[in-house]
Each structure stands twice: as structure tokens, then as C-alpha cells.
Amino acid sequence: CTGHLLTKKEGNYKFYLASDDGSLMYLDGKKVVDNNGCHGEQERHSDQKFLKPGYHKLAVDMCELGGGEVLKMRYEGPDTDNKKITIPKKALKYEEKKEPEFAKFRDGLVAWFRS
């Protein structure tokens, strides 16, 4: 997914990404959470990031290798009264969707897709 995160208050934020299987989170073009790999549901978090009010570019990549499927994006900081919560829809602005280009893959090939 790609889009923007709106922060209303200046301060330190921490981001959490739980997934089954791998996932990566980028904020303003920099990787902030690395939860990559083949694994059951697990959560990783960023270091604290100082953010000013406004929109910040947000991108999340995920891959699924079989079994369960989970992706949870959470954060904590001044906008959440420093409580860890799921990032609410009102704080997200999605970029206009592009139609994906599909290719023929053989069985068992794992691919990443960013919409």
C-alpha cells in the first residue's frame, strides 16, 4: 500500500507492523520497520521518529508464503495520547490506485506487489 499518514501534533512517534509472513514499512522514503521473512504472525517496531504536523509518505510491502494472512499497522505518539492503536482511516490518505500489471508466474513463485 502507498499513501500518506497525517499527523496533527508534533512529537515522537513509534510504528508497529505485525504480519504473517513478511512486511516492510517506509515513512518519508526511509525504511522504519523490517518484519521481513517467512514466519507466523509477529510484530516488529520502529525506533521513535520525530514528526511535524502534516502528511508523511507511507508505504507498506507485504508477502504471503502460505498459511495464515495477517497485516496490522499500529502507532503511538502525540496524536494517540501515547497509546498504541491501529492507524485510523482518518489519518490515512491513499494514492490513486493503479491497475496492476500481471505476468504469468509458475506455481510456487513468490512475488511482492505494491498497490
Automatic annotation (TrEMBL):
<feature type="domain" description="PA14">
    <location>
        <begin position="1"/>
        <end position="91"/>
    </location>
</feature>
<protein>
    <recommendedName>
        <fullName>PA14 domain-containing protein</fullName>
    </recommendedName>
</protein>
<dbReference type="InterPro" id="IPR037524">
    <property type="entry name" value="PA14/GLEYA"/>
</dbReference>
<dbReference type="Pfam" id="PF07691">
    <property type="entry name" value="PA14"/>
</dbReference>
<dbReference type="InterPro" id="IPR011658">
    <property type="entry name" value="PA14_dom"/>
</dbReference>
